[in-house]
């Protein structure tokens, strides 16, 4: 099977039962993506496929051949952090760090969803394509990522600070 | 997970025919429910037929002013479609009230309708469960039944159908389009898709073995105020204890479907005549014949109060 992971083409011969998560961690050594619940309930395994966030634990690797898969390793490196990674450090967006790769991958895609005008459970007027960037809106949209350490406030701050332009517009609109 | 063989279906007819012919075959779409259940061996298909390559990923207008939603349209894309947001807002609202952003990106229209119950004993293979293992008993009756059903249930099973989307589809009078293994197509009204458990809780739908859902059609829009109100144990990313999907017109008339209480989206058309009279009368009609357990009787009150809140919101 051929996979495109973090812009590299990779061949791997795996059992058809292998989840995308296990392919990454156990077969390719990409252990940045974490296994929390293994049942879609925590978001620790979040990766991006063609720019969209999914839970890699509930995905069969065989179904993701030739799709663009992006993991935390592809988002930034220690020498060259993604702005959101830097913000997680600055704003204490983690304690143990186990949920962090999933939080960051999820947030990167979540920003894309807001920019594309996708509604959420908090969207009051569904006809509007301009979606707000309020704290509540981010909390709702990030609800698929749990943090046992409860670093939620730092996570939200890091996201808002990184995408400050949108947050500023939101504050302006509220004023 | 038990071993299985895997193939990608080439056409809908072929998929249906092969599913009916191959012992233990199952379709896989988003996989968010099926794979979860396969890991814990509640589902043990011997063969998976991947339907993701079949197309069915478009939302198109129908000749009579409605909308035809492909079986493989992702929940995210369906909730975001401007025609749905404008004319069938209840559907958008129910979708975004369910699961998480990640899951909605994978979950499909057909998979969502056919997702299985979240009864905790159904998930625990050490427990008796008539749905998972016919004749083994029901651990939920007399067990932890707080999240389970209060109406439409039986002596054999009190599980609920967990879908939020299906509640909206029921209130919108959707029709499910399928292809049978012999290649013929048929339309099933959403009201008839899910079956009540009776003495055979393992049989959950009206679909034949191998029958493939290709689309869900919505009739022409009926206007009104669309409200989906979901009550759950945490504010997001949790299944409903009770949910109300309502479409309410200016004169107070309307439609109501209820989630979290029954083995199928629960709607009693006759009870809707009482809508201008207020929540109590409608709830009485909706819940006539309810059989709650000691742990979940609160759902009866919760339905009435949630409906009251929805009606007040529609008036405001
Ligand atoms: C943690 C978690 C939280 C969730 N919370 C919610 C929630 O709050 N509200 C809610 O409504 N849902 C919730 N869900 C469930 C989610 O919505 C479903 O898992 C999803 O909609 C299933 O769609 P799928 O395409 O992934 O289905 P799959 O898992 O691929 O398939 C489900 C079933 O449908 C069958 N099937 C699929 N496509 C077809 C077809 N075209 N024709 C015939 N049969 C078909 C499969 O064989 C299988 O039996 C949650 C799930 C998880 C894991
Ligand atoms: S309620 Fe239904 S699904 Fe739950 S244990 Fe009883 S038989 Fe099984
Ligand atoms: S490990 Fe995938 S959601 Fe928890
Ligand atoms: S930082 Fe520990 S789980 Fe989130």
| Alpha carbon gap, first and last residue of chain B | 52 Å
Say which CATH homologous superfamily of the largest domain in chain A is assigned.
[2Fe-2S]-binding domain
- Overall geometry of chain B comes to globular
Largest sheet of chain B: 5 strands, antiparallel
Bound molecules: flavin-adenine dinucleotide, iron/sulfur cluster, FE2/S2 (inorganic) cluster
Rg of chain A is 17 Å
The helix content of chain A, as a percent range, equals 25-40%
Estimate the strand proportion of chain A. Answer: 5-15%
* Strand order in the sheet with the most strands of chain B: 4-5-8-6-7
Could you say how many structural domains of chain A there are in total? Answer: 2
- CATH secondary-structure class of the domain at 225-315 in chain B: Alpha Beta
CATH domain topology of the domain at 225-315 in chain B: Enolase-like, domain 1
Number of strands of chain A: 5
Counting helices, strands and paired strands, the structural category of chain B is alpha+beta
The low-confidence runs of chain B, each spanning 5 or more residues with pLDDT under 50, are none
Strand ordering within the main sheet of chain A: 2-1-5-3-4
Q: State the secondary-structure class of chain A.
A: alpha+beta
Low-confidence stretches of chain A: none
Protein name (chain A): 2Fe-2S iron-sulfur cluster binding domain-containing protein
InterPro entries (chain A): 2Fe-2S-bd, 2Fe-2S-bd_dom_sf, 2Fe-2S_ferredoxin-like_sf, 2Fe-2S_ferredoxin-type, 2Fe2S_fd_BS, Aldehyde_Oxdr_Iron-Sulfur, Beta-grasp_dom_sf
Pfam families (chain A): Fer2, Fer2_2
Keywords (chain A): 2Fe-2S, Iron, Iron-sulfur, Metal-binding, Oxidoreductase
Strand-helix topology:
The complex is a heterodimer of chains A (175) and B (316).
Chain A: E1 2-5, E2 8-11, H1 20-27, E3 46-49, E4 52-55, E5 68-70, H2 72-75, H3 83-90, H4 100-115, H5 135-141, H6 152-162, H7 164-174
Chain B: E1 5-8, H1 12-21, E2 25-28, H2 34-39, E3 47-50, E4 59-61, E5 67-70, H3 75-80, H4 82-87, H5 89-96, H6 101-106, H7 109-114, H8 120-123, H9 165-171, E6 175-179, E7 185-189, H10 190-193, E8 212-218, E9 225-231, E10 242-248, E11 254-259, H11 279-286, H12 298-315
Helix pairs in contact in B: 5-9, 11-12
